[in-house]
Amino acid sequence: MSTKCFVLVLASMIKGEQISVFEEIVLAFMCKAHTILHVLGRCEDICGLGNSCFALILFFVPGAASTFVEKRIVGSQSCKSKRDYHVDITSVQKGKYCGGALLNTRWVITASHCAEQEVKLKLGKKLLIWTAEQKIPREQQFTYQDEEDEGKPHDIMLIKLSEDVSPKLATISYNRKDCAKPEEHADVEIGGMGAKKAGDKPENKVRCATTQITQCGENDKPDSKYSSDEAAVMCAFKPGVESCFGDAGTAVVYKEKLHGIIVSQPVDKCAQTIVMLNICHYIEWMEKTMKDN
After folding, report:
1. Which CATH code is given to the segment(s) 77-292?
2. What is the pLDDT of residues 138-192, one digit of tens each?
3. Exposed/middle/buried for 235, CB within 10 Å: 0-12, 13-18, 19+?
4. How far, in Å, CA of 41 to CA of 102, rounded?
5. How deeply is 279 buried, as exposed, middle or buried, from its count of CB atoms within 10 A (0-12, 13-18, 19+)?
6. In 3D, which of 88, 137, 120 has the Cα closest to residue 249?
7. How far is CA 265 from CA 7, 101, 158, 214, 268, in A?
8. Per residue in 62-86, is it b (16+ CB within 10 Å) or e — as a string?
9. Residue 282's CB: how many other CB atoms inside 10 A?
10. Closest among 166, 144, 176, 249 to 206, alpha carbons compared
11. What is the largest CA-CA distance in the chain?
């Protein structure tokens, strides 16, 4: 029997901020794939008011039964702290899908394997739409090269945007001094929009999960193309928490600071032990790269 899918949204916002309640309710009551939802932008654009407004939106879509959205980072939930600094990264030639983090108005950090060719970046997601988009050529991508290992690359990259994004976009900070790898068993937050496997549709918002730093196993390393320097690689494991296709390059957060990026790149199934790079190992290189370029 066909039913009607009702999404009733009651939201208010102050000018310039997201309507987070809107997004939560839409995701909680998302209809089946053929349902069409009209995505709304800034509240002042909707209401034509300068300071604040109050919006009541009602969607009537015949022939669709409501269902819950499947979580992508396995064991995930809505992020406790907003990850508005999250960057969506896809290869122009298709085939690659990753995440990244906006460090400032000009630079993004991600995993090297997420790019190394022309890529399209989407930034500043508000509600269910991105507010900025840029295509980045290979020349604006900087991979760390290990001079002590015959120049072998590490799976970490800084991407220079073609033009500055709005300073209003959220960024994530890191410890420039006294940066230290989280201790074993420490809780870290991961988040991403990855699909369960390659070819599946990615999530439409960042989902988060808490996992724990653990010792890396013998096979818990970045791809063989990249260095597996023990000083830089760290791992996390927690029963029921996994990273999936498309979660690579996303931020690992410890005590509200960026402490790593995910480099696991599963294709057909999600990764139970999550391999990451500890950015404390790269601070000097990061600062120099952004200054010199």
Report:
1. 2.40.10.10
2. 999 999 999 888 899 999 999 999 999 999 999 999 999 899 999 999 999 998 8
3. buried
4. 21
5. buried
6. 88
7. 35, 17, 18, 18, 10
8. eebebeeeeebbbbbeebeeebbbb
9. 21
10. 249
11. 66
Which pair of tokens denotes residue 98?
């990753």
Q: Where are the domains of the chain?
A: 4-62, 77-292
- Rounded CA gap, 192 and 144, in Å? 23
DSSP 152-185: EEEEEEEEE-SSPPPTTS------SSS--PPPTT
Please report, in angstroms and rounded to a whole number, the separation of the first and last CA atoms in the chain.
61
The mean of the pLDDT values for the chain is 78
What 3-state DSSP class applies to 192?
strand
The answer to whether the beta carbons of residues 261 and 251 sit under 8 Å apart is yes
